[in-house]
Amino acid sequence: MPIFEYKCRDCGNKFDLLISNSDKKNVRCPECSSTKVEQQLSLFNTGGKPISPAPFNCDTCSISGG
Prior knowledge:
mainly beta; 3-stranded antiparallel β-sheet
């Protein structure tokens, strides 16, 4: 069962739910019990190899970390 992230449009509470796709229509805010919730874009991890961070200062472009 996936974890979905939600935000309540009434009180602004952000929360996560472990819920099936078929039950998503019954979601209520745990703080105010409102049904006016919107699903947020969730980030996920694929478990792949980490990418090396960009250098602090790039000598070949105009990007600077400072």
